[in-house]
Amino acid sequence: MPAPPRLLPLLGRLLVGGEIRRSPDHLRRIIPHLPSHPNLAAALSSLYFPLFPSSATFLHNLLIRASAASPSPRLSFAAFSSLLRSGYLPDHFTFPPLVKSASRLPSFQRTGAQVHAQAARRGFLADTFVVNSLLAMYAAFRDTASMRGVFESCAEVADVVSWNTVVFGYAKCGEIGNARRVFDEMPHRNGVSWSAMVGAYAAAGELDVAREMFDRMPAIGRNVVTWNLMVTEFARHGLLPLARKMFDEMPVRNLVSWNAMIRGYVMNGEMDGARELFDVMPEKDVVSWTCMISGYAQAGRYAQTLELFRTMQSHGDIRPNEVTMVSVLSACAHLTALEEGRWAHVFIDKHKMVLDNEFNLGAALIDMYAKCGRTDMATKIFHSLDQKNVSAWNALITGLAGNGDARRCIDVFEQMKMSEEKPDDITFVSVLTACAHAGLVDEGRQFFQSMSSACGVQPELKHYGCMIDLLGRAGLLDEAEELIWGMPMAPDVKLLVALLVLTKPWTNKAIITNATAQGYICKGPYDFLTEYDCFHLQHFIQAVLPSPSNLISQESRQYITVKVLI
């Protein structure tokens, strides 16, 4: 990674002119830029920090603190090692950012414990800031035993932040009883303390207790953050009327309040309620727009997804982010709106959005092009990704399968098996579907049989459904029936109907008899088809109604008939 543009001229002037050797102030100006460039940081710290012995610890601390707040917290430990190797002593300012760096790296739990030991050996556990950083670290690691040990051994220096951190730590780990015990023992509580307990009960689903705690809060502590928390949790648990009641009762609302209520409507599929609130909110940010756009996409209202996105574009002060564009691409894919999808692709490139991060923007692009029939572009996007995660592989494999290109689908599948990413349940559905449509029976059998043995994926109903389809299309009905009755789980409606549709009329009686004997149908007025769609019911009625009355109950026979007529 190249050094940032501002750093190169500054560093060049200081080195050429020799100013960097004259005062530590010049190093102070450079240090904030160093965490992204560990080699440069190591060189400068080893060459120039020792030139200023009285400031060496301070300069190392600056580098540790800058690294702790950067995307590269590992550099903190290199800076700490450099400090010790150079013979300088850490002070009480050294440890809080060092501990923070450890807490940001889940694999550094052992390193965090070693830093704790260093702080203890050097006598810094008498410093409240050091203690609080250790409490937060163990809470982040979900190590409540070590957190409790630090808290109890350093009780004399604990402040309200210490107590709150322990309450938060227990709550985060689901230890509500311990969180409440510490809360009840607190000598002084503030709004954060109350919010921690309210949030703990709400997150655990104990909303009645959360509301009781909220009502008991001193008015001075019941701030907009706590109100937002209650609205969010009520909505998250599907209690929209209560969430809306809390929202309406809020004495002061901020943008987060509006977004929380809108998100609550979206999470519960109430898009009309969300839109009503969205249209009257006093100000909107990218979160507001993205929440609505994503909600429409998730609800299958793809035309409205694109319509709202166009409206968002007319507000030039708000730029869509990766999450927004994933939803837009999903809508384009489902509508096979290639021109809109191409425009979205140009927008993504123009704003240099990253395709291969946790937002799976690359996979969304692949899926869009594939669903629009442009597997060439889908393949091109796939090969352009530096990091190909399972979503990207699945998008291409599924796209090729959906376009009937079974051979290329299988080729990509074989490449995936040799990569770092391993096939999952979605991958196998796509590959088996491709085999079924192409009549590749032997390959389909092989892939199905290798799911658990070679890839550790246990076949589910959807995989058995693909195999029934594959065997049925090939006319291997006996094998299909043998497979369905040999499954480790009961077949669902779709599988049984698929088998009935594939078989000859005179064999339906045997299949129904077998299903009856195994307890899959004929259980009363609400048999296994009572809540299924009419398409499958119409197929099933042709097979069932002519069957003997002892094979299916009269109530079910009447229900199915009425259902089809409706």
Q: Can you give keywords for this protein?
A:
67% helix, 566 residues, disordered C terminus, 33 helices, mainly alpha, single chain, disordered N terminus
Number of helices: 33
Task: Count every beta strand, where a strand is a DSSP E run of 2 or more residues.
Answer: 0
Could you say which structural class the secondary elements and strand pairing correspond to?
Answer: mainly alpha
**Global outline:** globular
Q: What is the CA-atom radius of gyration, in angstroms?
A: 31 Å
**Helix content range of the residues, please?**
55-70%
Strand content: under 5%
Major beta sheet summary:
none
Distance between the termini: 65 Å
- Mean of pLDDT: 84
Question: Which segments are poorly predicted (pLDDT under 50) over 5 or more consecutive residues?
Answer: 1-5, 516-537, 544-553, 555-566
Pfam family, one: PPR
PPR repeats: 159-193, 223-253, 254-288, 389-423, 424-459
Organism: Miscanthus lutarioriparius
Protein name: Pentatricopeptide repeat-containing protein
